[in-house]
Amino acid sequence: QVQLVESGGGLVQAGGSLRLSCAASGRTFSSYSMGWFRQAPGKGRKFVAAASSTGGSTLYADSVEGRFTISRDNAKNTVYLQMNSLEPEDTAVYYCAADSRGIGGVGLFSDRSYDYWGQGTQVTVSS
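The structure assignment produced for this chain is given below.
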């Protein structure tokens, strides 16, 4: 069983930055690929970024490429999402997720590849 707890959300002006954190329980965090998704009001959940178990391989949605950076610290069982140059369109609830089944690769673009989810953290970007 894996528990994920996100933090770091808040209200920020356009052009600003936030760093989200996702703390994971369990001793096998370092074997999981991890992802970030977001859900805006009235819309479906969308892929944002993912990192392989070592963090050596990362994936990004086109909409955040060059602005967001996913990283992880396996010693701290934590994955991060550094968000820079934020835009009002980035407003959403952000969720972290764990792929404990080892699907990996391009499968990480799909929320169906993840079997554990956090409760989400709200990010609001004002114009």
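Interim note for the steering committee: The chain has a mean pLDDT of 96. The longest strand covers residues 92-99.
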